[in-house]
Structures are given as C-alpha cells and as structure tokens.
Amino acid sequence: MPILSLGVDPDGFVRRYRCGVVTDGDVGALAVALRELRASPSLAAEYSANVRSYVRQFHDLHGRVADVRSVLCALCGTG
Q: How far apart are CA 6 and CA 58, in angstroms?
C-alpha cells in the first residue's frame, strides 16, 4: 500500500525510500497524488514494493529482538 501523507514523514523515510507522497500540508497536492496513483498502477505497485522492502529491512521482528537483546546485555554487562 503506497503512503499518501498530508505532512507526516518520520525521519523523511517516505521520500527517501520512495514509499509514497508527502504533500507538506497541501490538500490539493494530496488529491492530485491520489489521482496519479489511481491512474498509474505501476507507480502504486512501485511504492507498495518500496514500503514492503523498508518494513522488512528496518522493522523485521527477529532483527529488532536481536537489537533489544544486545542493548540489554550491554546494560547488564553480559554482552
């Protein structure tokens, strides 16, 4: 699912990873972006693939568990 945002883009990831469109508060631009996505299934598919890739790369459950474990071990002096 492509991301269409009126203004939220945490850490700029939507733009940086081409996950969709951020319109910086411009409602008209948001409507245009929605129409463009509806008219271009290939662009919507590209954004969707980029979202999936981003989530797998940065929010993988096993990777995050390993990160938390590493931090906890470092804090406890066991890592």
A: 23
- Give the pair of three-digit tokens for residue 8: 């939220």
Give the whole-angstrom CA distance, residue 69 versus residue 79.
9
For residue 56, the one-letter residue type is: R
What is the per-residue pLDDT across 25-61, written as a single tens digit (0 to 9) for each? 999 999 999 999 999 999 999 999 999 999 999 888 7
What would you measure as the largest C-alpha separation in the chain, in angstroms?
56
CB neighbours of residue 43 within 10 Å: 17
Q: 0.90 exceeded by the pTM?
A: no
Question: Whole-angstrom Cα distance, residue 52 to residue 78?
Answer: 35
**Chain CA centroid to CA 62, Å:** 18
- Distance from C-alpha of 36 to C-alpha of 19, rounded to nearest angstrom: 14
